[in-house]
Amino acid sequence: MPEFGRNAASKEKDEDMAHIVDNHVGKRIRQRRWLIGMTQQKLAELVGIKFQQIQKYETGANRVSASRLWDIAEALGVPVAFFFEGLRSQDDAPGDIGYYLPDDLIGDKEAMDLIRSYYAIPENQRRRLFELARVLSDVA
């Protein structure tokens, strides 16, 4: 019996390559986990799975079910919507946001180090640093 809504080529492609949404969600899991200094092992323990499964989620090799994503969101202290932020539809052009932002910001170690350092600063000083960065970016 044929599958409805999918052809054989589409199914074969899904098995060979992760879907863009799966990759994005996985990167967002890794980003948040890294930002709060949590290991894959700790996240896996909180969620009740093996750390290898977290690895597979983070690489997009395995899709995260809705209920598992809910558990991961709770363990990482973010709403489920966090994992979909920054995901562009196929209709969105890369330059639509009006300023330069690398496609793989999550994979940019320098940017991630900057974000981690930013959140390590006390909140009142962080606000001043944010305003300074805003002024400097307006000048550039």
Entry summary:
This protein has 140 residues and is mostly helical.
Keywords:
140 residues; mainly alpha; 434 Repressor (Amino-terminal Domain); 7 helices; globular; disordered N terminus
CATH architecture group name of the largest domain: Orthogonal Bundle
* Content of β-strand: under 5%
Distance between the termini: 60 Å
Task: Tell me the total number of β-strands.
Answer: 0
Total number of distinct structural domains: 2
Low-confidence stretches: 1-15, 93-100
Number of helices: 7
Describe this structure in words.
The chain has helices spanning 8-16, 20-35, 40-47, 51-59, 66-76, 109-120, 123-139. The protein has 140 residues and is mostly helical. The chain has 2 domains: 8-99, lambda repressor-like DNA-binding domains (434 Repressor (Amino-terminal Domain), Orthogonal Bundle), CATH 1.10.260; 108-140. Residues 1-15 and 93-100 have low confidence and may be disordered.
Write the layout of secondary structure elements.
Blueprint (H helix, E strand, L loop, with lengths): L7 H9 L3 H16 L4 H8 L3 H9 L6 H11 L32 H12 L2 H17 L1
Helix pairs in contact: 2-4, 3-4
